[in-house]
């Protein structure tokens, strides 16, 4: 027997349908108040019905040439929204989390010790490189795709990627293609720039990840009124995280095309991870498994440092390898999750995945990824949520998944101008698109660099360095406030430079700062 409606809810909205007021704070609280499971089911069904009605209205505004594509996107969103309503929350059962068995995370040295096959070209020709290219450069103060930001000698992330693959194809006389997963935010600008690579020895394909509607946090309905995503409508849509790669790659038809060309594995990574280059030893391990059992999914992990405590970690959960992200951890266990001693590794998001397995699982609707609920506040103050998934979370859906504990050098992400300073410096040398730590650096660890808010935007950062300092002997750099660097500055040991509000510090050309703290005012003017 259904219980009576809580007093703050009423029947209305026409046709005797349940009306959910705009003051609904969020779905989980509504569920806890609702009482019986039967009544909860009524609420779920009502929310799904309202969502379907709104999505149908949006679909009706699609022009005929976009109809099929829009329908696929909205169908994918409907499935995700259905799961969001069914699931009880992000927490995992902490009691079931175990350390992975010894053999499920292999040290890279063991993989490398197997050597390379006599015919490297034969394994390379079965590989496709996929770069996740959906992000904008807004966090670094740049317009357009992040992949088009210059990172080294005028080369962009995309330039370096193309150079790496071209070098492989020329060296081994192979045909390794590059596939870019764009988002509706990056697709147009990326396609314009691809013309410059038309004469390079790399086939480049693109496909777009889905475009999903943002939903109002209170009504749980889309804020979009039609399919347009220009002008004011841009804020109504979002790309739903890189977990969307499986469905959108499959739906694009490109997955089948590449399988038809004899390709067997994709190497997937973020385009801003400059350490994510094709590794022939890992590829050989996949193509020639030592036990004869095909491994469908490899996740590269690396040892945590204090800077990585929030990174997702590989665990054993219900007899499967499982990626656990910090958002899924029950609050009482967050500190334990961050512990470097208990969870020693984190996910680099460098993944090697079997194409035929993606096709099989996609057709069986069997790829299971936890939903990430990402709350945001739009410029006008509206609170919305985005439902997203992460590509690595699918590890538990594949057979014989494996973690490989790789050197830290394979994780070199550029998320901030502090990271950019490192990769632009003489700490790294550039060869055929790949960055390697300079042999002149006496220890292999990367210095800790923290540039203050005056350096956040790439344009401001570049203006504050006449040339990039010598950092070969640097351990730690902190810069705060209005600080500029002259030419040929050398930084060694621990250097802290703090200009207080209203002060300015100009580090003079040729200065050598070793284990120094600089504060107050320092300006050297030409006479």
Give a quick rundown of the structure:
With 527 residues, this protein is of the alpha/beta class.
Question: What does the model show?
Answer:
The chain is α/β, with parallel strands linked by helices and 527 residues long. It folds into 2 domains: 94-410, Spore Coat Polysaccharide Biosynthesis Protein SpsA, Chain A, CATH 3.90.550; 417-519, 3 Solenoid (UDP N-Acetylglucosamine Acyltransferase, domain 1). Helix content is 26%, strand content 25%. It has 14 helices and 28 strands. It has an 8-stranded mixed β-sheet, with helices on both faces. It has a 4-stranded parallel β-sheet with strand order 23-24-26-28, covered by helices on one side. A 3-stranded antiparallel β-sheet has the order 3-15-16, with no helix packed on it. Strand 23 (448-451), helix 14 and strand 24 form a beta-alpha-beta unit. Helix 2 packs antiparallel against helix 3. The longest helix is centred in the first third of the chain and has 23 residues, at 37-59. The chain is globular. Residues 1-25 have low confidence and may be disordered.
Structural class designation? alpha/beta
The CATH superfamily of the largest domain is Spore Coat Polysaccharide Biosynthesis Protein SpsA, Chain A
Provide mean pLDDT, rounded: 89
User: Given the structure, what is the number of helices?
Assistant: 14
Largest sheet: 8 strands, mixed
Give the beta-strand count. 28
CATH architectural type of the largest domain: Alpha-Beta Complex
Radius of gyration: 25 Å
CATH topology of the largest domain: Spore Coat Polysaccharide Biosynthesis Protein SpsA, Chain A
Number of domains: 2
As laid out across the biggest beta sheet, the strand order is 4-20-14-17-13-5-8-9
How widely separated are the two ends? 90 Å
Low-confidence stretches: 1-25
